[in-house]
Amino acid sequence: MPNMRAKVQLNRIEQFQSSEILHFNAVAAKAYPADGSDEDNTYAKYSPSAEFKIHINNPSLLGQFKVGEKYYVDFTPAPV
Length: 80
Known about the structure:
By secondary structure, the chain is mainly beta. It has one helix and four strands, in the order ββαββ. The longest helix has 8 residues, at 39-46.
């Protein structure tokens, strides 16, 4: 399996006493430059839809993510 990189945007954070659930979606926009120069346009073309959520309990990560920020998510096969 080849490696894959997706680009996602944080859309919502569910906050709990000692954890958070981060909700991500694939990057997208209502309009892109006609020349296709916007990087989000390239990602949206090849992965137009994605949903990803992660529940984190690591105290050093709590409060570090902000709604609206964008991140790369890399998929690399793990050894068996």
